[in-house]
Each structure stands twice: as C-alpha cells, then as structure tokens.
Amino acid sequence: MTTPRNNTRRSYGIVGGLGPLASADVFFKLMQAMAARGGIADADVVFEQHPFRGSGSASVAAATTERKLYVFDMIRDFEKRGVGAVVLPCFLSHTFLDELRANTALPIVDMMEALKHHVRQTHPQARRIGVLTSDATRSSGLFERYFPEASFEVRYPRTVQGRDLVTEAVYGEDGIKRGNLGGRPLQLLTEAARDLAAQEVDLILPGLTEVALVAHAVTPLAVPLVDTNRVYAQYVADSQGEAAAKPFKVGVVGGVGPAATVDFMQKIVRNTPAARDQDHIKVHVEQNPQIPDRTDNLVGHGQDPTIALYATCKKLEDGGADLIAIPCNTAHAYVERIQSSLSIPIVNMLTVTVQSIRERYPELKQVGLLATSGTLGSGVYQRALEEQGLQQLAPSPAAQERVMEAIYGREGVKAGHTQGRCQDDLRAGLDDLVRQGAEVVILGCTELPLLLPFAELALEDGKRIALVDPTDTLARRCVEFAGAAG
C-alpha cells in the first residue's frame, strides 16, 4: 500500500467576490497575522475574486443557488491549483457549509468555529451574545447552532418601524456594499449596536463581514464589539481550523468490461450495511471501455494497455479517491507497473481473493482457475496462490479454448450473452477442473460470475464444488476499508 504525498508547506485559497471589500479585509488581516507569527514566508495565499451578481443587493442576500454554485466553483478551482485549505469570509455561505464539505476534498476553515473559540478564550463569562447580521443569516439560525441555548442567549437588534437597520446599513443604496464606510451606514450600525447594549448583552459579534470591516468606528459602546474578520484571520494563521473528515471514496477503473463494472457496483451496494441512501459509500467510476484488451496484449500482439490504465487511475486519484478498485482480473498483470507512480493504493483483487480462500479453507491444497488465457499466461494468480501455499489447477488446452469462447465468442458473455452456449462452454472448463480434483474454483474473469452466479454447484456424484467470485471479494474489501476509515 502506498502512502499519500506529503506537502508541509501551507497554502490557502480565499474566496472573494461575495463581499469584495470585506474579503479583501480578511486577506489583509490574514497576512498581518502570519507576519506577526513569522510564517508569512512559509505559506502560499491565493485571493480569488470574480464578479458575483448577488453581492450588492439585499433582495438576494440569501443562500441562493447562484451563491452556492459560485462558492463551489471557486473551491473546485482551488482544488485544481493544489490549494491546501479554503478561507470562506462570508457568514451566509457558512449556512450551507455542510453541503460544501460533503462535495470537496479540501478543508474549509470554519469562521463560526473561530468565533466560538475566541469567545471561550477571551470572554469566558459571556452568556448573552449580541449579533449584527442580515435577516437571511438570522433566519437560518446559524449563530444559535454554534452558540446553543444551553450555554448562550443570542440576541439581535430590534427593528425600528419595521426597518432592519443592519441589512439597510450594508445592502442599502448608500450601504457599505457600495463602498460607503462612514456616514449613514455607520450611524445605522451604531444605533443597532446600542440597541444590543440596551438588551444587556455581554459582547457583540458582527455576523456580516462588512460590519466587521467598520467595527473599529462603531463607538462609543458599553460592551465589546469584536472584529470578527480579524478573529477569523488569526484563527486561520494559527492553523486551529481543523478539516472536517471527508467521506471515503472508492475509485473504480470501469469499462474492463462494462458489464463487469455494473456487477461490481451492485456488489458494493449489496455488501454495504446501510439504512438509507446517505449510508452508502462514495464511488467515482471512470468508465473507459477504450482501454486496450488486456488478453490480446498478453497472449499476442495487441496494444499495451499500461498507459490507458495508468491514465484512468490518475483521473481517479485527481478526483479524490482514497483507493482504486479494478474489477478486471487480467488487468492485474499490469498493477505492479503503475502502482509505484500513484499516491493511493490499488486494492489487488487477486491477492485479497486468495487470502480469503486460505482463511475459509485452511486445509486446502489445490485451487482451480477459470480465467482468460492472458491471466493464465501472466502467472499472476499462480504467484498469488503459491504465496499462500496453494497449487493452481488450469483447464486443459481444449477446455481452455471453450472457456475463451464463453468469454470472447460471438455468443460469449462480452457480447452480452449470459445463457445458452456460453454457459455450456464455461461448464466444460469447470468439469475439466473437477476431474483434476478441484474442490474450489476461482471465477477469475469478472464476467464469469454473470454466467455462474452461485456460491457452489452440486455435481452429478453428489459432491459440491465451491465457486469463488473475486468481484464480490473485492467489493467486500472496499467496503471494509471504507468502514475502517469511519
């Protein structure tokens, strides 16, 4: 198993544009905090800002689809650029933080966790928290989730003749969003803050980054007004923002062959203990039927599939997969060639299959193998079996021809057939192995379980022969890895 690449240099991507002035303020204060800690030379900071049509209007000051997609696209761009963590200076975007985290591998530094940490460290006696935020953030209950009722009481400014003073100060025609950092917007914020002071709050937290931008100018007040932009920046610089655990993701090299890929996916689902959709494993399938035929290359002069297999694995790696499954037995003849160039492990279907046989049948000496001629010729199963003290039994040349016909023939399984002649041809290979003394047979081509979907078969003499499905074994092992990862 390989280990992921390790990059100790810190890097951050700041999502700008939702509040152009305020996000720039967070960027500036982050650089100040890093400089104060002597780490400004050890971090890469990307400040990305594009026009967002909802950034200056109170009517769209909500967690709209446009806002969600804007933030997600920005994070996706950071992923491609190799950024290590996301700085999201927008309270409204934190109302859908769980949605973002579920769909990105990048950690997003939680601004609300930063505030909660600050309050506990700096104002440990504070119980009544005043918040200057928009009506949209207020109605979402964001602050109540982080400052729960059992320990805190969250209060907001009261409306004045039906007017929300904070929203008007930020989103009004002459508001802070339009570049006015003094005058009437400051007067409205001061009035709202004094109303909170009159409600006897212990401290005031801006719940809009634009409010924090001018927090220093809202004076005089009888209670502290926190610069939440600076708090967030310092939290990022201190690296106290822990990454949420990302869902485990299985990457699948699909198309080798297509029907076998579908069969593998069904077995992933069937073997996953789940009570609802969300309990299932995250899977990324890169369906690439154009990967050159592995058997043609191994037994003849067909095109080498190494680059195509590697390119598909790299796409899965780049897509955030934690491991790779290749539901194709013959393709495992190429695994050793490409594994060392990947930073995530390929789960070797052959190895885990043979290990499971040894565990189930500790006294077994011989194992029959039904597979393509390429798999047999490569010796990959033979080596795996020998490592477990097992001897491989292969069909006779004549029987092997019928096995290949069952797989590649005009009426074979790769042509979409699962009954009739293909089953007869495969059964001929199985009978040959039984005559050689096989009691356990590996269905060593991922299409073969489509022809023999049984755990065992009864023979004419009353004996039973066990059929081992490597696809199912691989699916079970991937589920185990996902479960172990939590």
How would you describe what is shown here?
- Belongs to the aspartate/glutamate racemases family.
- One of its GO terms (molecular function) is amino-acid racemase activity.
- This is Aspartate racemase.
- This protein is 43% helix and 14% strand.
- The protein has 486 residues and is an alpha/beta fold.
- The chain has 2 domains: 10-238, Rossmann fold; 249-485, Rossmann fold, CATH 3.40.50.
- The strands form 4 sheets. The protein has a 5-stranded mixed sheet. It has a 4-stranded parallel sheet with strand order 2-1-3-4, with helices on both faces.
- The model is unreliable at 1-8 and 55-61 (pLDDT under 50).
Salient structural properties:
2 domains; 14% strand; 486 residues; five-stranded mixed beta sheet; single chain; alpha/beta; Rossmann fold; four-stranded parallel beta sheet
Short structural summary:
This protein has helices spanning 20-36, 65-80, 97-101, 111-122, 135-140, 142-146, 165-171, 183-198, 209-213, 228-237, 258-271, 294-299, 306-318, 335-339, 349-360, 373-378, 380-387, 397-408, 421-435, 448-451, 470-484, and strands at residues 10-15, 43-48, 85-87, 108-109, 128-132, 153-155, 203-206, 249-254, 282-287, 323-325, 346-347, 366-370, 391-393, 440-443, 456-458, 464-468. The protein has 486 residues and is an alpha/beta fold.
The number of distinct structural domains comes to 2
Assembly status: single chain
CATH top-level class of the largest domain: Alpha Beta
How would you classify the helix and strand content by structural class?
A: alpha/beta
Helical segment tally?
Answer: 21
Q: What separation lies between the terminal Cα atoms?
A: 19 Å
Helical residue percent? 40-55%
The 3D shape can be described as elongated
Report low-confidence residues grouped into runs of 5 or more. 1-8, 55-61
Strand arrangement across the biggest beta sheet: 13-12-14-16-15
Any idea of the CATH topology of the largest domain?
A: Rossmann fold
As a whole number of angstroms, the C-alpha radius of gyration is 31 Å
Residues in β-strands, percent: 5-15%
Give me the count of strands: 16
**Largest sheet data:** 5 strands, mixed
CATH architecture of the largest domain: 3-Layer(aba) Sandwich
Mean pLDDT: 90
Organism: Herbaspirillum robiniae
Protein name: Aspartate racemase
Family: Belongs to the aspartate/glutamate racemases family.
GO molecular function: amino-acid racemase activity
